[in-house]
Design brief:
Length: 589
Amino acid sequence: MTIKLTGIGVSPGVAIGEALILDTGGVHIPRSYVDAEAVEREWRRLREAISSLSEEIAHDRDEVARQLGDRYAAIFEAHRQMLEDAKLLEELESCIRRERHSAEYAVSVVFGRYIELFKQLKSSLLAERAHDIADLEHRLLSRLVGRDPRRPLQLKKPVLILAHNLTPSETANLDTRYVLGFVTEIGGPSSHTAIVAEALEIPAVVGAGRFLDRVSPGDTVIIDGTRGEVIIRPDDSTLGHFRSLAERFRHRAIRLRGLRCREALTLDGTRIFVMGNIEFPHEVDHCLREGADGIGLYRTEFLYLSRDTEPDEEQHFEVYRLLAEKMAGRPVIIRTFDLGADKLSYLREGNSEEKNPFLGLRSIRLSLRYVPMFCRQLRAIVRASAYGDIRVMFPLVTTLTELRHAKMILRDVMEDLAERGIPFNRHMPVGMMVEVPATVMLIDYFLEEADFISIGTNDLIQYTLAVDRSNRDVVSLYNASDPAVLRLIAATIQAANRAGKPVGLCGQMSANPLYTMLLIGLGLRQFSVPPLAIPEIKKIICSVSVPQCEEVARRAMTLETAQSIDMYLRGELAKVLPDRDLEESEVAS
Ligand code: PEP
Ligand code: MG
């Protein structure tokens, strides 16, 4: 039966393919076949896994009987009997011997069938047994494939990933030669997983709600990352419709690319800089192709997240130097590592029990806690400044003390390099992100000590509105159009312009065409967006004048709710780009 899900589209486009399910423990179950001579080996592997699990359950049963009595132990015995059930074993054996499936795949198919069967039973008590079977399946699979959730997927053919959740580092490690798109049950619109999906340029939907118990590995799935829709086991006509949609989406991207202009000048001749946000060094090529005016944000934490050990100074340096050289004199803003919160790494393994990780030890706080590690990165950034227009930026600065402390460490690094005669740019600009309302309150003080600032709206929105950016349950409250957020942005831009210090905006908001006129009207002259968004943002800039944008901003700032501001901005955008609505509905229809 076809299943339709609605989630949050976080990376546009349509992907169609076969499902690969990652369960919550990171165990993956590809549909795989084995050679005739490997059949015996697979069956033996499975028998061994079953008897070792059976022994473990028997041990638990005896322990519970000793501590709590036989009554409670009975449930464990029931599990053991389920696992050793003759009919179940027969089906597993047949799946391996006749169908030539791997042990893992046989477990996922046969157990999956039983789970479905139990779920459909009228008695809720019996339906509950589905959980027990799912638990047995999980434990068996963990034995068969190993428990390490960081184990990279060994893919050999294109798939769509279906998962309860993907961490940003798991997402960053997806092999896009084979992973065509993904869907997760949880996650919010500005989570770092969403940002990485956009960087990988694969269609993705997050926060689709619970669905994994209704799909099987190998099911055909459609992911529409533009509209946040997922269709599992589509019928032929739906499949045909989405195939032509995917085709039109490709054409639209090509058309837009053709429209990009070299320099973004408003109709009245004001130069607006459109820079690129990158998570991976190779994206610099995409930025260059799209005509980016520089790299406005390099999220360096992905250098740490895609490996088990910290990169050393040379590894950092090689990446930064390459970026500087490729951008050939255009600015490259390197943000020091913004680890923590949803971007955990080996660094935090012993310390990942924070109740509110977004309010915890993340970003600059972590850098100031792990100073030697911070220094290794800073040394590499400073050294790379000899090869191009490198600028350094600190994330999540909340107090002046933090900024001063970080700058002091940077000064020490520079002094040490100077003593050793290592070349670097002594005037390398030092900037900071504005992501916390407290920072906006004191922005004049920060502007005296920072060479430039960049507004991180992804975090600014969550900290202003008290809405977790990665939580689908509060997604309707997470809104860049909220007047409180807009006032903070306006105050920051105005303060920077007054102080004569460059100000950019690198949160996802700057890539949303809805806000381009508003932001120009508020005085912003530097946007930093994912490379894919550069042509469209440039196109809008070239279609408007500054006085027109100022009028839009003036009107928008008088409105009281996010909804009325949204509606107003939609209307204004439609006036400037009447074709855009047409194109959107064409893609969506
Ligand atoms: C932001 O918060 O807007 C930002 C650009 O940083 P990140 O999304 O990496 O937290
Ligand atoms: Mg941020």
